[in-house]
Amino acid sequence: MADAVMGARPKAVSPRQFYVWMAGSCFLIAVIGFLPTYWMPLARGSFRAEPMVHIHGLLMFGWVTFFFTQAWLVAQGKVLSHRTWGMLGVSIMTGIAFIVPTIVSLRLAQAATPGEPAQAVHDARAFTWVTISALLFFVPAFVLAVVKLKDSEAHKRLILLATISMLGAPIARWFIFAAPPAPPWPAGLPDISSPPIMIAIIAALIGDILLGVAVVYDWRTRGKVHPVYLVGGAILLAMHLTTGRVANSATWQSAAIAIGKLGLPT
């Protein structure tokens, strides 16, 4: 009996429980990440931004809340409710797919304002690649997850992977919050200041730790890693590692100028 007790192993976390924990982690990262630069200033009434920025925040918060709720429903065995609420996810994703390019085009239009410092303009255009590249990963991953609805193993991994791809933004907020205050922006010009691109890269790679956790869980529970993590994870990691090179390239800078023209008033 003693040998049996000594040889016993802790009960492994079930896949359903695991994805609740992963979804909860994504939710906490998103909420805590935006506390110092959005939620707290908003509560104090000191946050000033265009209405579309608030819409963007609502949609992104809605997504991580939706993801956690959906994972919890499955863990509770409420699969029918999970499927019923699935259309809400499509609505949120559609909203994100429209609002993100709108905000990016607005920022790039502001960068085209005469008199803006040349280096700040370059940096602003470079940083928008961080947002656009995340969207270019998030949307196809979600669409593929919808296509794979009947393949639950692929579906849940694609949703998790899509969510992880968006975690760089809230993580980077803490780096920005901890940085020394920026000098006053030239009077009469839109503030297009952006954090160093390296902050976005480091933040994204920190978010990728959750992908590593998922890979290890797969290996330990299945004896192999699911192709979604192998292929999708490799693409996500490559995207993050090449962010700086692409963002500062002449090709993206030219593309950013073209996108910025879409945000200019006619």
Number of domains: 1
- Quote the average pLDDT: 88
Strand content: under 5%
Gyration radius (Cα, Å) is: 21 Å
Low-confidence stretches: 1-10
- The number of helical runs is 14
Q: List the helices and strands in order.
A: HHHHHHHHHHHHHH
Report the span from N to C terminus: 81 Å
Could you describe the 3D structure shown?
This protein is mainly alpha-helical and 266 residues long. The chain has one domain. The chain has 14 helices and no strands. α2 packs parallel to α8. It is globular and about 60 Å long.
Primary descriptors:
disordered N terminus, 76% helix, 0% strand, mainly alpha, 266 residues
Give the helix/strand layout.
Blueprint: H1 2-6, H2 15-33, H3 35-44, H4 51-75, H5 79-84, H6 86-111, H7 118-147, H8 152-164, H9 168-178, H10 197-207, H11 209-222, H12 227-241, H13 243-247, H14 250-262
Helix pairs in contact: 2-4, 2-8, 2-9, 4-6, 6-7, 6-14, 7-8, 7-14, 8-12, 9-10
Tell me briefly what this model is.
The protein has 266 residues and is mostly helical. The chain is built from 14 helices and no strands.
